[in-house]
Every structure is written in structure tokens, then in C-alpha cells.
Amino acid sequence: MREEILEILRDVRSDIDYENEKAMIDDGLLESLDIVAIVGEFNDAFDVNISVDDLLPENFNSVDAMAELITKLQEG
Amino acid sequence: MDKNRNRTDERENRAKKRRKRFFKGVTFTVLTFLMAAYLITVFSFPSGMEGDYVKERYNCFYSQEENTIDGVYIGASGVDRFWVAPQAYKDTGITVFAMSSSSMPLVTFKYMIEEVRKTQDPKVIILDIRSAHKTPEDVDEAYVRRVTDNMKLSKTRQECVDASLEYLRKADNEIDEDDPSWYFGFLKYHSRWKGDMQLKDFIDLDPKTDYMGYSAHLTHLIFNTAKISYPPINEDRTPIDPDTEDVLRDLCEYINTLDCNVVFVESPNCHSYETLSKRNYAEDIVRSYGIDVISCKDAEYAEMGLDFETDLYNEGHTNIVGAIKYTRWLANELIERYDLPDRRGDDKYKAWESAYDSYVEQTEEGKAELEKRIAEVKGQ
Amino acid sequence: MAFASLQFVIFLLAVCAVYFITPIKARWAVLLVASYAFYLLSSPNTLIFMVVTTVATFLAGRAMGKIQDRYQKRIDEAKEKKDRETQKKLKSESKAATKRIVVGILLLNFGILATLKYFWYYLETILTNAGIEVPFDAGILIPLGISFYTFQSAAYILDIYRNKIRPDKNLAKLALFFSFFPIIIQGPISRYDQLAHQLYEGHTFDYQRIAFGAQLMIWGMFKKLVVADRIGALVDTVFDNPGQYEGFTVIIAVICYTIQIYADFSGGIDIARGAAQTLGITLEDNFKRPYFSDSVSEFWRRWHITLGNWCKDYIFFTVSLSPTFGKLGKKSRKYLGDRVGKLMPVIIAQILVFTTIGVWHGAELKYIAYGWYQAVIIISGMLLEPYLKKLAELLRINTKSFGWKVFAIIRTFIIIVIGRFFSRALSFNAAIGMFISSFTWNPEVITSGAIFELGISRWDALILAVSLVIWFIISVFQERGVEIREAMAEKNVVVRWAFYLLAIAAVVIFGAYGSGYDGAEFIYREF
I need a labelling partner for C8 at 20 to 30 A (CA). Which of B73, C97, C98, C152 fits? Predict the structure, then answer.
């Protein structure tokens, strides 16, 4: 899953070092447009329904956080 | 054992730090207040020519020792171009201060009397009646501010502002009555930074002229002579502006509550016939309250030895030669009527000695030249 | 009570004194009393409206919390039983039940806002245009800070709805959160999870923190009194008399307004943040050197940041991530192609956001035009992005170079300045008229000195120039990450105390306040 996530991220924004960044929301690296695009792709790729309620910094600050969120949503 | 010592050490350090910060805070606050006091003093009513040296005159008055002034002469320029206070002292020993400001509005007189009596106990108060012919339209905000912005902050100043604003309201002008700068001048005068400040404003925090009120600093005026026509004989009366009349009557009522002598004077001038008639009318009102009036007419001019062709620099004001004549004559009048004491030789009044010295130093040369020119004119 | 005034300083000193004497646990109550006192001193007739919103929001939050608690119990039971279906059903039921309350309270609060701020104004306009005399003053009933506390309370409710926070159980404490006096005048629009606990915890006396707060307030007063109030005189002369001026005069006026609005707004925010800091509370910053932005999108991340964040969290994401708009996106992909189709929800969201931003400023057409102007620029940028990229490649422009950055900043600044016509002109028509009139070539208004007759003298211009240079240098340092106040604190005490004292002196001497002085009135002309 991690690889797929990274592919999607790099497709949306190619200029961020996703492996090392741990505060992509808090530091303002990802903009709202990026988030919308990423969420759209995640919803399609992993068959989940990421809603506005899930848009917390702790869910998107790092690749691992995003993986956790998707897993949680997949498990219901 | 060691742990306890470390704990007490820590506590001591924290207490020391707290004390240090407390002192820092207090010191900075004190510095801020000092700076504020300095700025308020500096950015105030202008000194020098721009403020017509009124500030310096008031500072001179406030700096006098209490109860050393036996007479105060209040009014507009009909006072400080005429009353050579240091000369009067030199000749007769009377200490009469010229507490005036240019175009001093009649409505402020009452409060000036109150103000001077706070620190002085004059035996006589001389009031210049020349302002009585003015109307509210004639009075500008600046004329009032010359008086109120140089008075010390007090209830008297507040009442003076209120009364002046009430008087000015009658003229329907656009003065902002709620402007707090009437009491806190800095709010207005801080704007003087736009090119109005000079180095001396920052250095001399208590500018003073040392002539006990006489305008010896106006060297471009008091050493001039102009041929003025002799004022016509005038026994007519023309009513003055009703608002001004109210003010005059209020002033007279106030005077009658005082326990010191008060006399109104009109110093020599050749203003218009109508103006002179209005002043006659005003003098009648004053007399009707039982208050003394000294009106300068032919007899008085002769007594003074005043020559309208040489002793004035314009139709309203005497030059230094004319002023000295007026001063000597008025001094005699005051001594005769009010028994003013001779303060020469009394150490308490040495400020007047030094005032005379300053006055001589300031005017000796100019006066001598003026006298020469007058002699030439007379010779022709 | 105005921020940049001696009264506010004295008020704050009094509040600080009482605050730090009060026992720690009760310090929040001091803030509450102070905030309501401040409101009564500023806008007593309209206090009732804030109270109504506060109480209603409190009750709505509590009701929602109770519903969520009840459902949560049942959800936990289902979780134990590993019954995912029931869990999902209960979760959506909980959402639906609380949604009803959300809709109700938002309608109430925004209804009050719409009526007080907009309805009376419209009524006044209609009556005036019909020639009927208006028996009321539409402006008088607008409560202080109504836009700010209404938006803040909406965020509170929506955060509860989204299970991000739990409702406050204490009405008095919640009342403090909505009425806190530093933010009631012009924000920043604060979030419950960021601000509330700071307000409720008592803070200890901290000399350094208080000093920093005071310094920030002085900086804010400098921007407001020395820059904004001074430059505003020229802005008022030109904008309040549309049609009388053209060409360079208009251009200078609109640039001056761009500076004025930034100085006034950010200065006020600095005073608010500095005041809060003395009491131990950190408010979010509302400005991050907005005129250094290299695109209009970035500008709205640096200007009125808390409003932008509010719109982002509660409008933009709600719309662009909602399933309804997701379906719309899929549909439009068919007709408009993949890229544009995916952007459709975002475009609609942006339109809604900037309509909100426009209307936030006021009910008039010019404000809506202001908002949509920004939206058009941003949306065009989004749609044209790949083409512009190709164009840059073709022209061999290095978009990462410093030169390009400077170009982008200037380009963005010009776009923003043009937008300012709409927010300051007296009406939409006046704005268009003034914009067109600016295309006249008349440099003589500068060379002849006529420009100095519009409210700013040469002296004023000199002080403005010096102030703006200082501000620019400070901004550059801040952009590089330098914390100005910390950096000053490291200099030796004589240097920095001299600096602080001079700063205070500069504010009180050069501030554009008071009745002004005209030497000509004072000189005595012998008579």
C-alpha cells in the first residue's frame, strides 16, 4: 500500500520528499488543492470514503499517517 | 544533604532572577515616564517669535517667588508694549508685572486674575480695557490658546477654556470643543514635528524672558518711530457687542467680590473713532460698578509728555521711548492711588534688579539710536 | 474603545493588574468580566445579540454532545460484537441527528448576522432610492464583532459535529471564548481547540512574555497611527470624490489604500495579539507578509489567514470532498475531460469561498465583485496551469530563478491592487470608473506638487517613506525566519532599551492624531 500511496503523492506534487517529511500539513507543504486531489485519488485507489471529518493534520502529516488512515477506514 | 543545598540554591537563584527582573521592569517604566514628561514639555505651545514670546512671559511669572509682585497688569498688547516693568521698579521700586498676551480675549481676564492670585498677593490689578470693543468674531482659537495652553493645568484653566469656548460659540465658528488638546497640549503640538521645531526647543525646557513682562525682545518694533496723528477728542459712546458686554459685566461683578484694588486703563493709541467711542461706552459700564477707570486723554498725554509724532511705532503701540514715558506716569498714578511700596534694597526682590540689568543690556543701544533719530526729526 | 488609544492601554493595564493578583484558578473569570466590560464600554446597546448567540450555541453544543454520547455507547457495544454494519448505521444516524441541530443553530446565528448587518442596510438603500425617509440608522444596530463571533461559533459547532472537539460544559467559559476582548474587534477568528484551554488556564506572571507582548503592541500602534491613519487622508480625498481625479493621482491613491488597509488591519491584529500575549494567551497570526506572495492563491494563505482557514476548513473541503460534488466531478469529466472534470468540485468550492469572502466585507455589489475577481484569477490560474508551464518552457524562462520570483511578486501585487478598487470605491460603478480613469497619462500631478495637496504633505510623505522602508526591512527579516523580538532581546540592554524608548517616542510624536498644528494661525500680526 505504501508504494501505491507514494506513487499517487508524487503524481500530485513531485517536489516533496515524502520519505522524510513528517509534518506536511503543519508545515504547510501540502496545499488545500493538493489535499483534494490526493483524497480523490485515495478514494478511488483504495475504495474508501475519506470525508471532511478525517482531514486532521495527524492523518496527513506523513506517508505513514496516511497509510494508517486508509487502513482504519478500510476496516470500518 | 547536598540535594537540600541544591534546592535552596535553586530557590535563591530564582528569587534573585525575580528581583532582577522586577528592578528591570521598574527602571524601564520610570525611563518611559521620564521620556514622556520630556516629550510633553518639548512638544508644547511654541516658544519664540512664533508664539509671540507668551510662553516665556508666563514662565517668567511662574518662576517669581511667592508674594513678590505688588501689581499685575493684565491685557493684550496694550500692556506689554507699554509697561516697562523693570524701569518702573528702577525709578520707584514698585513691582508690577505685565501679564499679557497679544489679543488676549476679554473673557479670559477673570481667570487670569484668579491664576495670578494663587501665588501672588497684588495690591492692585490693572486691567487693559482696550479689548472691550472686540466681538466673538474677532477672537481666534489661537488667541485663547495663547492664554490657556500656557497656564498650568488647574481648575482655573478648565474654567477659562469653558468660558472662552462659550464665548466663541456665539460667533458660529468651527472650533472643536471636545478636542482634548485644550487640556493636554501634546495631542495638538506633537504635530509641530513637521518642520516647526528648532534645536532650542529640545534643549531649553523652561524658556524665559527676563523683563517682567515688557516686550523688550521685540527689537524690530520698539526701536521704530512712525508719525501718528493725534487722537481726536471723543466723548461719544457707541454700544459694544452684546456678548462682550455680558462678559464685561460678569468681569465687573467678579471684581467686586475681590478684596484687592482693581483699575481699568486705556493706554494711549490712535485707533478708529468708532473703536474709541466703544471704549468710552465700556468705561461707563465699568464705572457703573464702582470700579476705578483711568482714561488716557489730552490731559494725561500732556502729563506723560507723550508726543504722537515720535513716541509710537504704529497707531496702537508706543516704542520704547513712549513706553518709558507712559510707565513713569502710570507708576506715579498707581503709587498715589494705591500706595504701592518701594521694594528697592530688599533682598527678596533681587529678581527685579537682575530684570533691570537684562532690560538695559537688551535695549540700551536700540534706545539710544531711537532717541537720536527722534531728536533729528524734532530738529527739522 | 479603539485599539490604538491611551484608553485601551490603560484598560489593558487594569486588566493585567487584576489578572495577576487573582488566584490562578479564577483568572479566566477576570478575562470574562473584562471582555464583557469592554463590550459594554464599546457597544452596550447590542450586547444582547452576542448573549443570545452565546447561549443558543452553548445549548446546541450540549444537545449535540448528549446525542453523540448516547450513540457512542451503542456504537461501542456493536464494536465489542464486531458488528460493522450496525456500527456504520449508528454512526450515520448520529450524524443525521446532530445535523438537524447544526442546521438550526447555524440558521439562527447567521440569520441574526444577516439581518443586523445586511437586511437593515438593504432596507435603508431601498427606502432611500424610493425617496422615502429612513426612520432608523442601519449602522447603529450592528453589534461589535458580530462577524467574528458568529463565524467562530459556527466553527465550534461544526467541530463538535465532526467529533473533533467535545462541547463545553460551562456556559461562562464558552461565553469568554466568544467574547474575549482582544479578538472581538477584528479577530483573529480563533478555533476552540487552539484557544479555549489557553483562556481557561490561568497564566503566571512572565516578565519576558509581557515585554514581548508590549513590544508587539507598540509595533501595531506604529503601523496604525504612523502609517495607516496618515496615508488614509489621501485615500479618503480621492476615493470619496470619484470622478474628480484621474491618472497618477488615482493610481497613487489605490496603492496608498493597499498599504493603508494592510497597515490598519495588521496593526490592529498586532495590538490584539500583543495584548493577549501579556495575559499569557497566544492568538494565531492573521498576516504573513502578504505582499510578498507570488500568486493570488498564496496571497489568500497570507492575508486574513484565519478567515482563509475558516473558509478552507468549513466551505472548501466540505464542498470539494463531499460525495455529491464528487459525483458532479465524475459527470463533468465526461464532457470537460479528465483534468478539468476533476477540478469542477474545486472550482465550485472556490466560487463559494470567495463569495463568502466578498460578502464578509459587506452587502454591496462591489464587495461581491471583489470576491469574484479573486476567484476568477485563481480559477483561471488553475485551468491554464499546464499551458502556462509549456509557455514558460518555450520561452526558456526559469521559473525557479530569483528574477522570476520578483516578477511573480510584482505581478501578484498589481493584481491585488486592482482588486482594491472594488473594496474601497464608494460603489461598483465608482470602482469601474476609477479604474478606467487611471489610464490617463498625467505625470504633472506629481511634478507640480499637486499630489501633496490631497491630505499628505511633504513632511507626511517623508515619514511614510521612512516608515515603509523600515517595515520592508523588518518584513524581509521575518520572511527569512528571524524572530524580531527575540533577536532584539539578545542585544545589550542599553541598545535595546534605547530602541524601545525611541519606538514609543516615534509612535507618539509621528502618530497621525490630534487636531494638528498650523504655525500660521499662531503668529501675531501686529494690530
Answer: C152
